Structures are given as structure tokens and as C-alpha cells.
Amino acid sequence: MRLYRPLQPPKLQHEVLDSNYRYREYFPSKSLESYVACYWTIDFHAMDTNKLNRIIPDGCVDIIFDLRSPSYSKVAFVAGLTTKFEIINLSQNHFLFGIRFFSETVHYFLRNPVSSFIGHRVFLEDIWGNEAIFMVEEIIVATEISEIIEKVELKLIKCLLLNEVNADGLLQKSMQYIYDHQGIISVGSLAEKLSYSERNIRRTFQKELGVSPKELISIIRFQNLLQELNNSFPSRFTDIAVKYGYYDQSHLIKNFKCFYGMLPTQIFKTKPIR
Fold first, then answer.
1. pLDDT (tens digit per residue) in 81-98
2. How confident is the model at residue 12 (pLDDT cuts 50, 70, 90)?
3. Do 229 and 240 touch, CB atoms closer than 8 A?
4. b or e along 160-177 (b: 16 or more beta carbons within 10 Å of the residue's beta carbon)?
5. pTM of whole model > 0.90?
6. Cα–Cα distance for residue pair 270/273, rounded to 1 Å
7. What sequence ranges are listed for the domain HTH araC/xylS-type (predicted)?
8. Largest CA-CA distance found in the chain, in angstroms, rounded
9. For residues 239 and 252, is the Cβ–Cβ distance under 8 A?
10. pLDDT above 60: residue 17
11. 3-state DSSP percent of the chain in helix, strand and coil, to 5
12. Of 127-136, 164-173, 239-248, 252-261, which gets the smallest average pLDDT?
């Protein structure tokens, strides 16, 4: 049973929110919780200043609908896996609706391996054809988020019914072990538990996801670290960091700079690791 729920900066840094910017998340229905981490929205009203929207790696793939795009064909696009933080400068009004998929099962909906979306965005119309335009039209006329989610879930369930779901593939089993161990596992230990060679596992991850298992393990571990830090007292910071394998300050700071682009003391009220 997957217990992984990734975080994004607006859920951590409440001070980055303002009256012109609102980020919200919504849980999927029971039938889709093995495939969808959450649905999310960003509602931004441009005023006198721009908004810097920070995105951090979470091991997920998103379908994003830019509902204020002037072109129907460019409303929906796929954002693939990332291994470093990104900052997007919002300078115009935006209303975004996103579907955050778990990377190991998103191929049931995108008909292509995640590796084909690495490093660039792909318009949903190029994957779904006219079905993407119909989906966009239905979402744009919806008046409530609950209505959008209902329409999206009907489409996603239809996709599942048209595909043969296999939960026993090497990638799926590997990811479940990584989730179960909160990213505190080596590729060698993963190979031993699955009775596969490390080379086979690396090849599968590279082919299907476009990233190495070590990279994805590091991201899942970092996300679990953020989750626990967010739900704990500042005095427990050092103990939690050590639990996730960050035994010295330089190692911790290196990961925060790579994955978040900020120091841990800028996000959490912490004392540095000695």
C-alpha cells in the first residue's frame, strides 16, 4: 500500500502565499489513489509585481491545464519528471489545474513511457488527439473545482478500463519498495529484495522513466524528509535529518540547494547539524 504524498513549496512555506496567489490540493477518489497523488490548482491574479513559483522534484508527472490560455490546443500539456528545482516567473493572470501522477503508473494514461517527456513539455493533444480538445472544452465550461475533478476522473477511469493494468512489473515493484522504505534504501538493497541485478534495475528505470534509480531514491527520500520536518517540532530537526541519512551539514545543504534551491534554515526554523 503506497503511503507517499509529495509536497510542493506552497504547502511548506505559507508565507509565500498572498491575496493574489492561491495554491490548493485535492485528493483523488479511492479508485484512482494508486495512480494520482493529488489534483492541484494555482489561481494567480497579476498586479504590480510578478510571482516566482517554485517547483521541486517529487518523483511525479503532471498533466497541467492552463485554463487562461488563448489557444485550446495549448491549454493542456504534460510536465515530466524533474531532478532539480525550477522557478517559473508568473507575470500574467493564471488559473492552472493539475493532475499529479505517480511516475510508475502514469503510462496507463499517457500511452508513452515517462522517459519520452524528460526535459520538455508535450501538449496533450499530441498524445490524446481530439480527445484532449474535448477534455479541455469540458473543463473550461465547468464552474466548480469539484465538477472539473469529476470530469477528469471519468476520463482517467476510462483510460484504465482500456488498458491492462499490471502491478507486478519490475518498475512498479521497485517503486513500492522505495516508497515503503521512504527512500532510505540503496540500489544494491533494492536489487537484493527484488532478486534482480542492479544493472537490470538501472536499465529499467532509464528506459521507462529517463532517470536512474539512485536519482529517484534521493528525491523520494528528500520528499519524506520534508514531510517529517513539516510535521515535527524544530528541535527534532537534527534527529530527523540523521534518520534520512544526512549525517553532516554539507550533505544536507547540497541536497537542499539541488532539490529546493534554498537552505533548510530558510524554510524551517532550525539549528544546523553539528
1. 999 999 998 888 889 999
2. confident
3. yes
4. beeeeeeeeebbbbbbee
5. yes
6. 9
7. 172-270
8. 58
9. no
10. no
11. 45, 20, 35
12. 164-173
Distances in Å between the Cα of 179 and the Cα atoms of 60, 91, 128, 173, 261 are 13, 36, 30, 10, 24
Judge contact between 80 and 210, C-beta under 8 A. yes
Is the separation of the CB atoms in 95 and 43 below 8 Å?
yes
Listed as own residue / partner, the contacts of 157-161 with beta carbons closer than 8 Å and 24 or more positions apart are 157/31, 157/32, 159/108, 159/109, 160/35, 160/108
| Angle value at C-alpha 52, between 51 and 53, nearest 5 degrees | 110
Domain spans, the chain: 9-161, 170-267
Cell of 26: 485535492
First-to-final CA distance of the chain: 36
The CA R_g of the chain, rounded to the nearest whole Å, is 19
Q: Which fold has domain 170-267?
A: Arc Repressor Mutant, subunit A (1.10.10)
